[in-house]
Amino acid sequence: MTETTVIDPFTDPRTFELTAFGVPVRLIIGGRGRDEFAERVLYLWKRCDIREVTGVDVAAEFDGAVVRGVLDPDEAVHEAAWALDSVAAETVEIAESVLTPAVTMAAITWARGKKVMLHAGAIAHPETGRTAVLIGASGTGKTTATRTLATQFGYVTDETVAVAADGSIQSFAKPLALMPEDRAWGKRQHSPDEFNLLPAPAQLSLGALVLLTRDPEGPEVPVVRELSTIEALPLVGEHTSYFGELDQPLHEVAALIRSVGSVRHVTYREAATLTDLVAELLATPPVPAPPLLPVPPPLAELDYDVEPFGRTIARRELRDFYVEDDGAAAMTLDGRVLALSALAGRIMTLIGDTPTTLAPVAAALTDEFGEPPGDMDHQAMRLADDVVADLVGSALLDHLD
Questions:
Q1: Average pLDDT value for residue range 140-156
Q2: N or C: which terminus of the chain has fewer CB atoms within 10 Å of its end residue's CB?
Q3: Does position 148 have pLDDT exceeding 60, yes or no?
């Protein structure tokens, strides 16, 4: 029986290094189509400071993400490549299409927990570097909007925006993936140069956060609504990669939101209509929200000599708990971001880390908010009981007896 010989796709690879939002990425390209694939990689990724490395540079220790790609007609070679966690394909068009998301995911994974990484496109003022971040799910028109706007503003990225705590941003001018007009399947990769997209300035800073909703039947002129931080947190958190691996995810995302004042939710029909809005947002530095006031004290720090009444209630352990000045709050629990009204938020802060009963909670709420309207006896107690029941149902509070 003759043994089948499988070609090792990486016996003589070509190696490249590029930068994705500040993350060093090494690309190792192999297979019998190595050179064809490599030339396309150099062309598509040239705005990400790509360079080929050889000799001692290849052997040197590399601190960054590593992605391997193979172009080869042999399916057995593909299987060998997949066993090495590599991408592989038989045509260069497919190979470059699977390489792009692989590079993005490798960089995101490498940087997880270090920066807020938003699933978003971004364009920058060509002189100041102030950057508008266009947040949205796949299929909401981010790439089309980014491509359209980047003919007048600097192209930062169409996929992932990594924002540091100080609001600084590093470019990720990756290839753009767009559906071709001559077929109904499979996106093609395009260099930003093919659309004459402007380069972004070297120094970039967060200038605006925009949550996009494209409606083909929507308004001719974009409709803008400013979201409160509490409204925005679940929406932005949903589009934040490795949100749960940030030290304090709610506080870190909220700090970015407050640094630009608010998140703008924009409903639009066509990407071209966004130009004037973005120009206005980036024309002047953002106005940050004022510093937050201290969180009101819990019952344990207040003097309420009230006879206990009702079951003992306790707050569940929360990884992150964010409170606005009006008392509205957000918290993370089991990977979820939950937004609470001012009343529910104050009940959570009143309970704090010390179990209590309903009576002192109701007394404190009455002092702070006033007696609630209604003709029934013990109206404050009834209202507090209703809200506590909702919080127990949401698994934020527990009954201990």
A1: 93
A2: N
A3: yes
